[in-house]
Amino acid sequence: MKNIAKILISLTLILAFALALVACDTDKDNGTAEPAGEVNIATLNGTTGFGMAKLMADAKNSDSALKYNVEVQTDAAVINAALISGELDIATLPTNAAANLYAKTNGKIQILAVNTLGVLYVVANEKNADIKTLSDLEGKTVYCPAQNPTFIFKGLCEKANVNVTVDSTTYAQPADLRTAVISGAVEIAVLPEPMVTIAKSKNQSLTVALDLTAEWNKVFPEGSLMQGCVVARTEYIEQNPQAVEKFLSDYKASVEYVNKNPEDAAALIAEAGIFENANVAKAAIPKCNIKYVDGKDMAEALDVFFKTLYDINPKSVGEAVPDENIYYKAND
Questions:
Q1: Domain range for 172
Q2: Residues in Cβ contact with 161 at an 8 Å cutoff, skipping those fewer than 6 apart
Q3: Is there a domain that residue 7 lies in?
Q4: Which among 154, 308, 127, 291 is positioned nearest to 209, based on CA atoms?
Q5: By three-state DSSP, how is residue 105 classified?
Q6: Last residue of a domain, one of 166, 191, 219
Q7: Residue 235: enclosing H or E segment and its boundaries?
């Protein structure tokens, strides 16, 4: 009898252990277990990085098994190189830079979500305070930062049949152009936020003549002007699907927090080094069009945007409109 009892106890223990293993596998399959590991992330300074501020602050005090290692960069080229080498898993980039990187790497990155819509404005000095429409720019010289801003502005001018001389080489960087506008060296310029807010705070005679997002929505599908996004390496997505989903959930919450709490968010933005002046960030946030758009909505709007950029200059998107595989979960 004792031997039978021992056998029954042993069988019970074996059965309990087997059930525990099945339960663990079930949890894993259902995605209920929290992903673990470290995610290497880079965010650009300025508007494209604003939405990351709360996530960065929370990551410092989190006891989650998934750790976010976030760095702030000033140059998209540095981020591109780190994504290609595998040093980074996730990053924020201008949308056209993401399209170019997708082409350059033959699909080794995907766009997870859009984080910034249109943030461009035409700023003019007192001499040009009468500018109210794109037509008022006829025959004038407008200075513009290189890449995305130039492509967008040229596209709008072509659509409006306005002949404008666009200089995107003298002050290729937004910060340099902002300084030139403040000093009066440049009379009319296309500037992104928060550069517009900075310029106006330093030179109160400046006016915001045109909101280029509003101009875009007049001639292209509304909401299709998308300037910033968050991307990830395709290999990382495939190997860490739960971590990617967890990140997107946290990132979406971070973006929503920034929009709902501009004062507190501005302090976090400055603390993280995304933008140095909290007061300017606070004033700029409502005009920065910080959003979270993913899936089908993201894919449909970005496809319009990329096709428009391609028509303006094929090189702007890597010589071809990206195919649907650039969009993470576009068909979900």
A1: 120-219
A2: none
A3: no
A4: 127
A5: coil
A6: 219
A7: helix 234-239
CATH of the domain at 160: 3.40.190.10
Pair 244, 165 in one domain = no
Q: Kindly give the residue spans of alpha helices, DSSP state H, lying in 31-163.
A: 47-50, 53-61, 76-85, 95-104, 148-159
What does the pLDDT look like over 18-56, one tens digit per residue? 434 334 444 444 445 678 899 999 999 989 999 999 999
Q: Position of tokens 């340099």?
A: 176
Between CA 310 and CA 312, with CA 311 as vertex, the angle to 5 degrees is 90
Looking at the structure, tell me whether residues 86 and 231 fall in a common domain. yes
Asked if residue 156 lies in contact with residue 115, where contact means CB atoms within 8 angstroms, the answer is: no
Do 181 and 248 share a domain, yes or no? no
Q: Of the candidates 219, 239, 267, which is a domain's last residue?
A: 219
At position 163, the amino acid (one-letter code) is N
Q: How far is CA 219 from CA 157, 159, 225, 310, 329, in A?
A: 11, 8, 11, 16, 28
Number of H helices, E strands in the chain: 14, 11
Structural contact between residues 155 and 184, judged by C-beta atoms closer than 8 angstroms: no
Burial environment of residue 82 by CB neighbours within 10 A (0 to 12, 13 to 18, 19 or more): middle
pLDDT value at residue 204: 92
From the centroid of its chain, how far is CA 144? 20
Q: What is the pLDDT of residues 84-101, one digit of tens each?
A: 999 999 999 999 999 999
Is position 14 within any domain? no
- Does residue 265 share a domain with residue 178? no
pTM: 0.85
Same-domain status, 318 and 171: no
* Number of domains forming the structure of the chain: 2
CA–CA dist 221, 219 (Å, integer): 7
